[in-house]
Amino acid sequence: MLGWVVACVAVGALLVMAAWRRTPKTTEGSRYFSAPLPFAARDMAISPDGRTVAVDAYGESAGKDAIWIYEVGTQSARSLAGTEGASYPFWSPDGRTLAFFADQKLKKIDVAGGAVQIICDAPSGRGGTWNKGGVIVFSPLATLGNGLYRVSALGGVPTEITKPDANRGEQSHRWPVFLPDGRHFLYLAANFTGRKRDVDALFVGSLDSNEKRFVTEATSNVSYASPGYILFCREKTLFAQRFNVSRLSVEGEAAMVLAEIEQLPQVGRAVFTAGLNNLLMAQTGSGVALSQPAWFNRKGEQTGVVGKPDLFRNICLAPNGRSMSVDVTDPERMASDVWTYDLHEERATRLTFDPAQSNNPVWSPDETRLAFASNRQYAGNPAGAFDLYIKNSDGTQEEKCILHDEVNKLVNDWSKDGRFLLYKRGSDLWYLTAADLKPTLLMKGSSAVKDGHFSPDGKLVAYTSNETGKWEVYVTTFPEARGKWQVSLGGGEEPRWRRDGKELFYLAWDGKLMAAPLMIGAKFDIGKSVPLFQTTTRQPISFNDQASYDVSADGQRFLILTQVRNPQTRPMTVVLNWDAELQGR
């Protein structure tokens, strides 16, 4: 595959550079090309000299996203070793180093080669920027009320430097970009409840003070491009507007540059980047994150599919195996809803209709109800925290909020006896007693804990933790977390029990589906994990993406949200001299 990438890039890059050299930037119009890469981009960042692009894209060989280096004008395209599972890359000022987010850390790597280094913790990184003084400004948390933080590029403890304005309805500050002075930076203030999209706007912040200046309304990230423009999206349209770096304000009217920019509405990100030399790159079209539920046997042979490709997340099989639940993102509304699918009659039913996000549905043992999380705004929840809800699976009766507090929560599992709901609260695992809705802490994560699932007998819980710096699968006792056993070695996520308790399945770091034989009884013992087959699961976008597969009761079939190559997804668009049409406006 790499040879194909190199050949495609070589031909395309030479054509682009030839056209670039013969295009007088001050007299002729923009030139449009397609970057001949055999994958769609999830994110991208142009280097400070405007010659190299870091592309975050899905690599089937590793079963995860990785960073690819696309050197415009050369005959090379390569993936950076050690960046599997990376997201949202950004460059050092000298263009020698890339920073990115992976394993709930902010990391960096020398583009020429070398080991990955950890800068600091970043549980759900949402963009960063790096100035010449060695200061990184970044968004480490995709949680309520998180602002931007600063940290030394050499490492250290991050310090918060902005705070969302609750009076404006701001929930998060993210996607910072330094301005040329290296002291001021642009960023997006965002709201994800579905009720206040007009809150989303760009602001200017400062390293030297609490200064905050409104710039313009926008629904995604921003790029600054010399000699004085900002580029940003409103919905799916990319605009450019003059920006006065002395006054820190826009001038004139915004002008459309490109339409149909790929959006990641779950995180408020649009896939484009701009830099020096009047170079602009963007992923146009839609469907980069498409997936489809597909059945596989233990040999990895696909035996069937469910429905049609869509923006699916968080799949869960009903205990009887006849139905599944899932949440589906609507890119027009920029929200997600809970759906159920009858697998025998191939009938889909939408269960939630609130404009907010509703996700991570799990079934009750008798299949009559679904528990899920939603960030609905109401009088008792002005900040829009993800609360826990229950609704009848046949759609009758309105959903009921069963747990509210100021911290985001996601449902993980419902015990087989119906007595307990296991959920993630912040970085910890909690459980709720179904009879009286009493919350109890099960495990306080030393770093971060997720993916909790009850054993069939309800006496154990399998979960994922990154306490070692890498996600691994563990098992502990329930209802008190006393013992602890590590299941995966070298990376693992998403543990799932076989109904008889004889196996525990999980996804290895490279996307292989693993099976660990178990002995449960007077003594708990774990055998050596064996790989079953390579998956190509849908890659997570937001912190709400928790469940990419589920397993049948007998452990012989697996329903996997499988990445789909969308034939309508266009190649990455390269625009040279992109500001030509804006001259004189």
Provide a descriptive summary of the structure in words.
The chain is mainly beta and about 575 residues long. The protein folds into 2 domains: about 1-285 and about 565-580, TolB, C-terminal domain (Neuraminidase, 6 Propeller), CATH 2.120.10; about 290-565, TolB, C-terminal domain (Neuraminidase, 6 Propeller). It contains 1 helix and 51 strands. Strands 44, 45, 46, 47 and 48 form a 5-stranded antiparallel beta sheet that branches. A 4-stranded antiparallel beta sheet has the order 1-51-25-24, with helices on one face. Strand 36 (about 410-415) and strand 37 form a beta hairpin.
In brief:
Helix content is 3%, strand content 47%.
Could you give the topology of this structure?
Layout: H1 2-21, E1 31-35, E2 41-46, E3 52-59, E4 64-71, E5 77-79, E6 87-91, E7 97-102, E8 105-110, E9 117-121, E10 128-130, E11 135-138, E12 149-152, E13 159-160, E14 172-178, E15 184-190, E16 201-206, E17 212-217, E18 222-225, E19 229-234, E20 237-244, E21 249-258, E22 263-264, E23 269-270, E24 272-274, E25 279-283, E26 291-297, E27 302-305, E28 312-317, E29 323-330, E30 335-342, E31 347-350, E32 358-363, E33 369-374, E34 387-392, E35 400-403, E36 409-414, E37 420-425, E38 428-433, E39 438-443, E40 449-454, E41 460-465, E42 472-477, E43 484-486, E44 492-497, E45 503-508, E46 512-519, E47 525-526, E48 530-534, E49 549-551, E50 557-563, E51 572-576
Antiparallel strand pairs: 1-51, 2-3, 3-4, 4-5, 6-7, 7-8, 8-9, 10-11, 11-12, 12-13, 14-15, 15-16, 16-17, 18-19, 19-20, 20-21, 22-23, 24-25, 25-51, 26-27, 26-50, 28-29, 29-30, 30-31, 32-33, 33-34, 34-35, 36-37, 37-38, 38-39, 40-41, 41-42, 42-43, 44-45, 45-46, 46-47, 46-48, 49-50
